[in-house]
Amino acid sequence: MSFAQYSVNVSSIQDFQQCRFRWFCKWVLNRVPRNESPALAAGKLLHTIFEEHFTTGVPLHMAGLRQTEEYRQLVSITEDPREKISGEAAVKVLDDMLGAFPMWMDKYPFTRMLECEKSFTLQLPIAPDITWLGRPDYLGICHGRVWHRQNRGLAAGMNFGTYVALAKRHMHEHLYAEYARKEYPDLPTVVRTLT
Does residue 51 sit in the same domain as residue 124? Predict the structure, then answer.
């Protein structure tokens, strides 16, 4: 018996675990709100800032200034008033962070970056008919092992206990560990995430 080949984005699994209705709207109906929440827009912008910092070596505060200004210009030309309000709120979130960026220090001693925001596909022997899709924030060498570092923040309204509970069952980490093990077979890999 042969099964069809499926491609599964690990984020869709997370969405399914958190809210089945949102998963259905986003991944089945392909109906997602055009207007992002300010927190989501600011989080995406923060990822872009860290990606520029890690891949080009530009100081974090310079990447923050550049990326925020570029986003601010996009917000200024949008015609949808809801997108403008949300975008302006996201810019305010980042403007509030920019002053702290020069003081940011990596608390983990990464000796080498392996990749940053690189997309991958992966097939596992346990489910050969599924192709997994992923994109880790950062893979690097820390204490002689391959680690995944998640660029993540805690939203002001998020309950810390809920945040920790969600982080413990984050499926991305398991998939990223399998990917790192296959992509870098000569390097010892750990499953944990540094945030």
Answer: no
What pLDDT shows up at residue 52?
Answer: 94
Cβ-based neighbour number of residue 45 at 10 Å: 21
Q: How many helices (H) and strands (E) does the chain have?
A: 7, 7
Per the rule left: phi > 0, alpha: psi between -120 and 50, beta: everything else, 59 is beta
Give the model's pLDDT for residue 125: 85
Domain span at residue 63? 38-103
Closest of 157, 150, 187 to residue 171, by C-alpha: 150
Distance, in Å, from the CA atom of 134 to the CA atom of 67, rounded to the nearest integer, reads 24
DSSP line for 140-191: EEETTEEEEE------TT--HHHHHHHHHT-HHHHHHHHHHHHH-TTS-EEE
Looking at the structure, do residues 97 and 126 belong to the same domain, yes or no?
no
Answer yes or no: do 118 and 92 share one domain: no
pLDDT along the chain (195 residues), means of 10: 66 78 82 75 89 93 95 91 89 90 84 92 86 89 86 65 66 83 83 51
Tell me the C-alpha to C-alpha distance, in Å, between residue 37 and each of 52, 82, 120, 131: 23, 10, 27, 30
- On whether residue 186 sits in a domain, the answer given is yes
Could you tell me the CA-to-CA distances from 188 to 35, 43, 117 in Å, in that order? 42, 31, 21
**Measured in Å, how far apart are the chain's first and last C-alpha atoms?**
43
